[in-house]
Structure formats: C-alpha cells, structure tokens
Design brief:
The structure holds 2 protein chains of 2 kinds.
Chain A (H helix, E strand, L loop, with lengths): L1 H13 L2 H19 L5 H8 L8 H26 L8 H12 L3 H34 L4 H18 L4 H15 L2 E2 L6 E2 L13 H21 L18 H23 L4 H16 L12 H16 L1 H7 L5 H12 L8 H4 L1 H22 L3 H7 L4 H20 L2 H19 L5 H23 L6 H4 L1 H36 L1
Antiparallel strand pairs in A: 1-2
Helix pairs in contact in A: 1-16, 2-4, 2-16, 3-4, 3-9, 4-5, 4-6, 4-12, 4-14, 4-16, 5-6, 5-12, 6-10, 6-12, 6-13, 6-16, 7-8, 7-20, 7-22, 8-20, 9-18, 9-19, 9-20, 10-11, 10-12, 11-12, 14-20, 18-19
Chain B lengths: L6 H21 L14 H22 L10 H21 L1 H13 L7 H22 L12
Classes of the chains: A mainly alpha, B mainly alpha.
Chain lengths: 506, 149
C-alpha cells in the first residue's frame, strides 16, 4: 500500500509545471540527439550538466534522465533510414531495420521501434519501482567495508564487461581514480596534486572533465567522418507506418524477451543498453524457427533489441539510485549531478529525499508517454532533422560547451581544463582507449578512499575485515571471479591470435 | 610486414607507466600514515603503483603483437583546440559576442573547404542565441561586449 502513496507523491512532484517543462526539454533533446549520428547522450548530458546549477535538483535530474532514455527512442531512426546508428545501442537496429527500409517498410520499422521502446521502458519502470526500495532496505545495513567492496566490484565489472580489452578498461578506471584524488583531502585538509592552483582545491571540475572527454574529443573525431552529406530519401507517411497483424504477432514475445534481457543487463554494473541490445538480438536469432531471415528485415530483429535497450535504460537507475553505484558513464554523470546538488546518493536517498526519488520515477512514466507522442505523429520532423549538416552543428556544440563550462564558476580556467581533457580524450580515442570507465573511477574514487579509511580505522588496521564481513566477502569473491574470468578470456584470445599468426606465417 | 607493432598499446602503456611513476612519487610528498590511520598519501600511492602495473601489462604483450600506428587528423584537432583556446582567452576580456565570432571562425578551419558565408551567418546566429539564452535567459554574468578594461 505504501507504494501507491509513494507513487502519488512522485506524480504530484513530476506534474509540477516546472518539472514537466524540464521533462519535456529532456526527452525532446534526447530524441533529437538520438536521431542525429555524431552526438551522443553522454556528450549532451555533459553539455547540460552546468544547467543543474541553475535549476532545482528534481527538475535537473528529470531532464538529464530524459535525455538518456529519450536518446534510446531516437537512436534507431537513423539506423533504419541511413544504416547509420544514431546511438551506440542502436547499432543492432541497422542489421534488420535498414533492410526493412530498403523493402519500403521503413514506416513500419519506425512505428514498431517506438512500440517496442514503450513496452520495454514501461516494464523496466515497473521493475525499477518494485525492486529499488527493497534493495535500498538491504543496503542500509552495509558498513564501510561492504561499501568499499561493492564499489570495487562495480568498477571491476564496468571495466571487464564493457567492450574492448579488460586491461584497457581497468587502466581507464585507475586513471579516473587518480584524477579523482586531485583537490583537498577531506580528512586532513591536505591539498593534493593542486600545484598551488586555487581553482583545483575543490578537485577537477566534473563538468570540465566530461565535456572535454566526451564533447570536444567527439567533435574532433567526428568532423571528417560526418561532413560527407547524407539524406534520407524516403518520405514517411502515417499510412506507411501501419503494421500488419503478422508484424504485431511476431513482435509480441520478442519484445517481452528483449525486456527481460534488457532489465537484467541494465541493472548490472558495466553492462548497460548497448550490450543488452546485442545480447537480445543474439537470443532472438537463436530461438527463431528460421534464423536465416535475420539480417534481411526480420521484424523481431528490430523490436527485441529495441525493447532491451529501453528496459536497460530504466533499470540502470536501480543501482545508481539505491546503492549510489553507477553502472555506466551516463549514470556516473547523473550521480555527479546529484553530488553537485548536495544530495548524497545511496540507500538513504529513498527515505531522505522521497520527493526526488519518486518524482524521478514518476517522470519516467510521463516522459515515456511524451516520447510516444513525439515519435509517432511527429516522426517526419525527426526524419527531416537528419539532413541538418554537421558543419552547422559542431560550432554550436563547441560554443555550448565553452559557455556552459564557463558559467559554472565564471572562470576561464575551466575552459582551459576542457581543452586539456579534450586533447587527452582525443589521444585516448586514437589509442583506442574507451574513456567512459574513467568517469566511473573519477566519481567513485573519493568515496572509495573515504570508505577504505573508515573501514581500516574501525578494524584497527586489520585488513581481514573485508573477508570477515559476509557481505563484503561475497562482493570480493564475485570481483575475483570476474577478474579470473577476464584473465582466462584474455589468455584464450591471445593463444588464438598466436595460432592465427603462426598459420599465416607458415 | 616487418616493423608493424601494436603501437597503440605500446604508446598507451608507456604513457601510463610514466604517469603512474610520477603520480606515486608525487604522492610521497604527503603523509603516508599507517594502515590503521591512512594519511593523504596512502590511497594515491596505491593507485599510482596500480597504474604502473597495468601500463606494464598493456605494454609487454603489445611488443610482440602486430598492429597499427595511430594516425591523428591534425587539421580538425588543431582547429578545434585553437578555437576553444581563443574563446577562453577572449571571453573575459572582450565579451561573449567577439568570443563567439572567434570560436566559430577558427572552428570552421577544421573543414578542408570552409564556407565563408555560412560561417559568417552562423557566427551572427550563434551570438544572438548565446546572448539571448545565457546572458538574458539564465542570467550568466558575461556581457555581450566589453570595451573598457
């Protein structure tokens, strides 16, 4: 019964005019940047982080979240029409969505992705609503040692489960942890790694770091790639969107399966929407009676992954809101936005800031309804937006980055920081390092240090405390299992490579 | 085929080892403390050592693996960096509008064939949006123009 009272509180918060407005701005922008290839949710949320200094916490978080799940709706549009994913998680939608477009069924594909998105999101929100308070209750009994072990698990999972080499992922997390050390040590007041620069005494600005790594670096890397013109030829009419009864029937079960896969992968740290959509595609291919249809415009190859990435985008909030452990870089930025607002994320969030927690969840419902309205009757507008040339967009993006970061502290020093991290981020892209885990390390670093110190103080310097407490010990066990699995996979891959190299040299 | 190694990871690993070493040494300037009462140097020192270790783990296998050399796209890189730098240097001294013009013009150089007219129109439009949205709308204290210093 409590649940309904809480949801009522949430809806009264989310229906406040200001919150509604920011919710709309969020999902609108999210769809916009989701449709456009070359600018992602991560870059956009980084660009809008400074705005959180000017608006109340609930409105700010509602908007940032709206960008994230709104982008999941928009992402598949470019995949279907141009064979070019608008967001990383929509890459799967190219596989069967583009062939559908080629067969003149682009309208149906666009409608079904919106339906699938809505189904995935709605079920995802229900799971989020049901499980978050339970998890928060459990987490209330965690001590400092448990927290440290849980954060360690989160970071290792994010680094090893993400795409690419686990060594590189862990390296990025470690770099983030190192950058998080800059600033004043909370316990002793000692200035660390500030080099006497007063602007660094509060630590490196999260806004500058994120904008440099994801904004400036992405612009540099996209310019040559995006200037080649592209245009959707097809005109999407409302009539062309009507699916056949067969389309609906073929999609019903895949959507549910996709939602299940997405809900699980979204809640796990490090996995997230992209992996969820790929996994769900693989599963559909496996259970299909005729797998050869995939890649040639099979409707379930579009709808299942689409449900998966939207469900994942919602359940990703479970660990972020209840444990204070972000699963991916976007969630890390959300967490950063909360910390900026002076809200300590963690299990106490549900009881101490119920209006924020339930307001955010209620706004997901409202936002998803807005998204359906934005995506179905107005799809023509989004298709037209695909023809906005990048040469107009990128100077605008750069300008918003510069003004935005300046506005946080009114200091030109922060713009220089953006420049430095832009150069670093571009270097990482060149060397094929994924900068997303770095943000996780950066956010969690100071918290981990604090919990480690507190745990050691409580145990009087006995490191065995991490193994004696059952919660902490089980987190550590999972962490080591993940690491062992990563090492095993790496060795097997290297052996295969060596064998291949030998075979070619012979 | 000879001589192509995985330079991506060699460069990345070497940079990490150097950075980690510097970070650990610099951390020793602070008080290390004990395991029970960790000083401000304890955690950073551990991080620095781990960074070095993972740099090594990245570097060693890369030495024996074929790969490619990273190829930077210098033109967009330099154009975008100078554009941001120029904005940082001009915004406080001359105001938002001149800084926007400088940024737009320099950013346009990232393209092989910049379009002069488009850039001019864009600069005017962006200045107008920036002033309306940030100075007027959000009340961020950057004047549109600043003449007297």
């Amino acid at each position: 019964m409590d649940m309904f009272a809480n949801l009522a509180l949430g809806f009264s918060e989310a229906f406040a005019p200001q919150t509604l407005l920011y919710c709309f701005i969020g999902v609108f922008l999210g769809t916009f940047i989701g449709v456009l290839p070359g600018i992602g949710a991560l870059a956009t949320i980084s660009m809008l982080l400074p705005l959180t200094f000017h608006v109340p916490p609930t409105a700010a978080l509602v908007m940032l979240a709206g960008i994230y799940y709104g982008a999941q709706y928009g992402g598949s549009t470019a995949s279907i029409l141009l064979n070019l994913p608008g967001t990383p998680s929509a890459a799967v939608a190219c596989l069967d969505g583009y062939p559908m477009g080629q067969q003149g069924r682009a309208g149906v594909a666009l409608l079904m992705t919106t339906v699938a998105s809505f189904v995935g999101s709605s079920l995802g929100i229900i799971i989020l609503t049901a499980f978050s308070p339970l998890l928060a209750d459990v987490a209330l009994s965690f001590g400092p040692a448990d927290y440290f072990a849980m954060m360690l698990l989160g970071l290792v999972a994010a680094a090893t489960l993400a795409q690419g080499s686990p060594v590189k992922g862990i390296s990025m997390v470690l770099l983030g942890l190192a950058l998080g050390m800059v600033g004043t040590d909370v316990q002793t007041g000692q200035q660390r790694f500030t080099f006497g620069i007063p602007q660094l005494s509060d630590g490196i600005s999260l806004v500058a770091l994120a904008m440099g790594l994801f904004g400036v670096a992405e612009v540099i890397a996209s310019i040559n790639r995006m200037l080649v013109g592209q245009k959707a030829k097809e005109k999407i009419t409302l009539r062309s969107m009507v699916p056949t009864a067969r389309d609906m029937k073929d999609s019903a079960l895949p959507m549910l399966r996709g939602t299940g896969v997405g809900a699980i992968f979204g809640a796990l740290p490090g996995a997230g929407a992209t992996i969820a959509s790929f996994m769900s595609y693989a599963i559909e291919k496996k259970v299909a009676r005729d797998p050869s249809r995939f890649g040639k415009g099979a409707i379930e190859g579009v709808t299942a992954p689409e449900s998966a990435n939207n469900a994942a985008a919602q359940t990703a909030f479970i660990p972020t809101l209840t444990l204070g452990i972000p699963g991916d870089a976007v969630m890390a930025l959300m967490l950063g936005a909360m910390i900026i607002q002076g809200i300590q994320p963690g299990p106490r969030l549900v009881t101490e800031h119920p209006e924020l927690f339930w307001g955010l969840i209620a706004s997901f419902w409202i936002g998803n309804v807005m998204l359906v309205i934005l995506n179905l009757p107005l799809i023509g507008i989004w298709v037209k937006m695909l023809s906005i040339p990048y040469r107009i967009l990128y100077p605008a993006i750069l300008l918003f980055i510069c003004i935005g970061v300046y506005s946080v502290n009114n200091s030109a020093f922060d713009i220089l920081l953006v420049l430095i991290f832009g150069i670093v981020g571009y270097g990482m892209m060149l060397l094929k390092f994924e900068p997303a885990p770095l943000i996780l390390g950066f956010i969690l670093g100071p918290l981990m240090e604090e919990h480690l110190r507190r745990a050691m103080l409580l145990s009087r310097g006995d490191p065995m405390v991490f193994l004696e407490r059952p919660i902490s010990a089980s987190f550590l066990a999972v962490t080591f299992a993940l690491l062992a699995w990563a090492i095993f996979a790496l060795l097997r891959q290297q052996r295969a490579q060596r064998r291949a190299a030998l075979a070619t040299s012979l | 085929m000879k001589g192509t190694r995985d330079y991506n990871d060699i460069i990345g690993g070497a940079l990490m080892m150097a950075g980690g070493a510097w970070f650990s040494l610099y951390a020793m300037n602070y008080n290390l403390g004990t395991l029970r009462r960790m000083g401000p140097a304890y955690f950073p020192l551990c991080i620095g050592l781990l960074v070095m270790l993972f740099g090594l783990l990245l570097l060693l296998p890369a030495l024996r693996r074929p790969g490619s050399m990273p190829l930077p796209e210098w033109r967009p890189f330099l154009a975008i960096c100078t554009a941001v730098l120029a904005f940082a240097l001009t915004v406080e001294r001359f105001g938002l509008v001149p800084a926007t013009f400088v940024l737009t013009a320099l950013a346009a150089l990232a393209e092989l064939r910049p379009n002069l007219r488009l850039t001019a129109v864009l600069a005017v439009a962006l200045s107008a949006i920036a002033v309306a949205m940030f100075t007027q709308g959000l009340g961020i204290p950057i004047p549109a123009f600043r003449w007297n210093h």
